[in-house]
Amino acid sequence: MKQPIFKKNTPIDEARISYIEKIVSRLVRRSVKKITSLITPYPISNAVFGDDIKGPILYYMFPCKGSITKALICLGDKPKSEVTINVSVKNQIYTDSKSYGMAGKSLSFELNKEIYSGDQLKISITPSEKDQITEVWVSFLWVPFVKEVEAKSYLISDLEESIPLEDG
Fold it and tell me: How many of the other CB atoms lie within 10 Å of CB of 127?
């Protein structure tokens, strides 16, 4: 049988108080709820329609530091031969450009390009002589760096209260 730690009707001394405080602090650490918040990327996109699309299909300037993670380009119809996609980022100091060959109806690629405030993105398309592009969709994901994101603090109880309960 387990022996009681403190016998009943004994005076409360300093050792007993420090032992109780240690137990309470351990229980408090175990009861902490964790909440994870996500910084979602911003989807930036454009669609161009016309009889014979060539050249720039998207211009975008970034307001703060971040990174471009992924890009997706879709054509209305599958091209007969390879279409060249040029992705260019420039600012007052440098220009960084990369070309991609697109043989199918869509092209998805990872950019993982760090962007600074004021950088300008230009995406352009160059079809072959055989192709006449009439529809182009372009989209990419941009994630601002954590320093640039507004941080808000909430009590867990406030977050739990703001979640609507489903009737059911």
Answer: 20
